[in-house]
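Re: the 65-residue chain
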Amino acid sequence: MSTQETNVFEERLDAELVKMQQCQEERAVKSCSLCEFYIGCETRRAYVQAVYDSMSKGETGGFEF
């Protein structure tokens, strides 16, 4: 996997992290689990998916640590 492909996953993760942190700020919570919209939240789902994709580099299955 090229560095450029790896950077795509890292950039997406960074972007989703910013969105999630902005949402937490707007709702005045320090954690998603404290938010009333925790279950079914699209912002949180997108962040979790970005974390998974970043760890697996787009491959299904194992992770690179």
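Helices lie at 3-26, 42-56.
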